[in-house]
Amino acid sequence: MAALNLRKMPGKKREKLSVHVVTWNVASAAPPLDLSDLLQLNKQDMNLDIYIIGLQEMNSGIISRLSDTAFEDPWSSFFMDVLSPLNFIKISYVRMQGLLLLVFAKYQHLPYIQILSTKTTPTGFYGYWGNKGGVIICLKLYGYYVSIINCHLPPHVANNDQRLEHFDRILEMQNFEGHKIPNILDHE
């Protein structure tokens, strides 16, 4: 869990925004019956404001992708079913083959969140295949620029140089020309 210090909240002193970040290689599995521990739903003292959920290796077979195009993918539906009764709303998502990035926020924060951009950068098979790469959500949160990146990069120590090249490519592709958005490395 992370806490963001926000100084620009209208009508309030400096406050913290609690953010829970999940990254999970689901290895083509379907959503389990219960993720209360992963989402820290069993902790009574948790007062979370935002969930950021990044999944890798979701089932991206042809049948699955066609079904997900017509209907919402099972993971998004699962998280919505769990979080919406707790006053969370899915504010943005981006998917590229087996990568999924979801952002949920409590409804009272919605007036202070602006989705600026969602992008995908495939790096698999010479930069054309999306089994590897990154998905990004760029938003303005209480006046601060925030970029959230979910990556799936080549594994193993022997591929470290390739992994760094892929990550550099993902960052290079995140230009926001014409949108008056600072470079991704200049975001808060």
TrEMBL record:
SMART domains: IPPc (SM00128). Its EC number is 3.1.3.36. Residues 15-188 form the Inositol polyphosphate-related phosphatase domain. Gene3D superfamilies: Endonuclease/exonuclease/phosphatase (3.60.10.10). GO terms for cellular component: endoplasmic reticulum; plasma membrane; ruffle. GO terms for biological process: negative regulation of glycogen biosynthetic process; negative regulation of insulin receptor signaling pathway; negative regulation of phosphatidylinositol 3-kinase/protein kinase B signal transduction; phosphatidylinositol dephosphorylation. It holds the Pfam family Exo_endo_phos2. One of its GO terms (molecular function) is phosphatidylinositol-4,5-bisphosphate 5-phosphatase activity. PANTHER family: INOSITOL 5-PHOSPHATASE, INOSITOL POLYPHOSPHATE 5-PHOSPHATASE K. It is an enzyme of class 3 (hydrolase). This is phosphoinositide 5-phosphatase.
